[in-house]
Specification:
It is built from 5 helices and 14 strands. Strand 7 and strand 8 form a beta hairpin. It has a single domain, classed as Ribonuclease Z/Hydroxyacylglutathione hydrolase-like (Metallo-beta-lactamase, Chain A, 4-Layer Sandwich). The protein is 20% helix and 31% strand. The protein is α/β, with parallel strands linked by helices. A 6-stranded mixed β-sheet has the order 1-2-3-4-5-6, with helices on one face. A 6-stranded mixed β-sheet has the order 7-8-9-10-13-14. Strands 11-12 form a two-stranded antiparallel sheet.
């Protein structure tokens, strides 16, 4: 079972556009036989929410064996230093093409980390990756697309480094074997939603 950790974000007007923005960002706790993998760390104030979710599922930071970043944007990696301090025994993984403040083990395309298959999905950032949990039939999509209003849509163009590359990555994920889809913004959806999205043209 995959356990989302939902963190609400508010951006004042002028920080990411003319209007203020309210959205959520999600980290994920993925159990494996000897502990838990944390996918993304949220913003720098996200650790209390992760701590609460750990307690809810009967775990604590000592159970976190691995931390994997989908990419280096601050709403996904801002809490990294605090997380690594709380889980000092955890291995830290990230895509090798994203710049990071601390060294990471390279999460290369196709490698397995505690039952999660790394899928290189560049475009949103150069080192963006998604993670396939074959046991759960689930794909953690990162920021390739999200469901901010309940419907799967492509990531906003201003936050995407290479839209054409991101589109190729979306098509790559559509060929994977999964049922449930977990974007990092908005609630979970399914494979059908991704297939529907890919029939719609990309917009700026």
């Amino acid at each position: 079972m995959i356990h989302p950790v939902v963190i609400d974000v508010h951006l004042p007007a002028g920080l990411a556009g003319l209007e203020p923005m309210d959205f959520d960002v999600r980290c994920f706790l993925v159990p494996h036989p000897t502990g838990l993998t944390l996918v993304d760390t949220g913003l720098d104030h996200s650790t209390p929410a992760i701590t609460g979710k750990l307690a809810e599922i009967g775990a604590d930071w000592g159970d976190v064996t691995d931390v994997i970043l989908t990419h280096d944007h601050p709403d996904h990696a801002g809490g990294l230093s605090t997380v690594l301090a709380l889980a000092p025994g955890a291995a830290f993984w990230a895509g090798p093409l994203d710049p990071l403040p601390v060294p990471a083990r390279a999460a290369e395309d196709g490698c397995m980390i505690r039952g999660l298959r790394v899928i290189a999905t560049p475009g949103h950032t150069a080192g963006h990756l998604s993670l396939l949990s074959e046991q759960n039939g689930a794909l953690l999509l990162g920021d390739l697309a999200g469901t901010p209003q309940g419907r799967l849509v492509r990531a906003p163009a201003p936050f995407t480094a290479d839209a054409a590359e991101a589109e190729r990555s979306l098509h790559k994920t559509s060929r994977l074997d999964f049922t449930d889809l977990y974007p990092s913004h908005g609630g979970p959806t399914d494979r059908h939603a991704l297939q529907q999205l890919l029939t719609a043209p990309a917009t700026a």
